[in-house]
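User: Hi! I'm working on a homework problem where we have to compare a predicted structure to a textbook description. Could you give me the structure for the chain below?
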Amino acid sequence: MDLPKTIEDFKDTLGNGTPPESWSLQLKCLWYDANNEWQKAHDIAQDMDNIIGSWLHAYLHRGEGDQWNADYWYRKANRKSPKNSLDEEFENILSYILSNK
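Assistant: Happy to help. Predicted structure tokens:
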């Protein structure tokens, strides 16, 4: 499968058993999170040594309720901890990834 062009394209894949092999680690991380596979998503984010990996890592810890750890990763991503919902942050991250392929 080609890379998704929109959030809807991404969401259309969520019923599949695994994310497409051709996808970036960033997209796979969000795919696993959206499929309630937090540990798989976390394992990917943890191994990404870059700004987007830190942002994903922060988002995941925020989602599990570990705000202290999330704040650490937001700082590494040069971001402030958001005040919006997790769903909104998910879509913000996904939009960022899709627009910066």
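For your comparison, note the following. The mean pLDDT is 94. The two ends are 15 Å apart (CA to CA). Good luck with the assignment!
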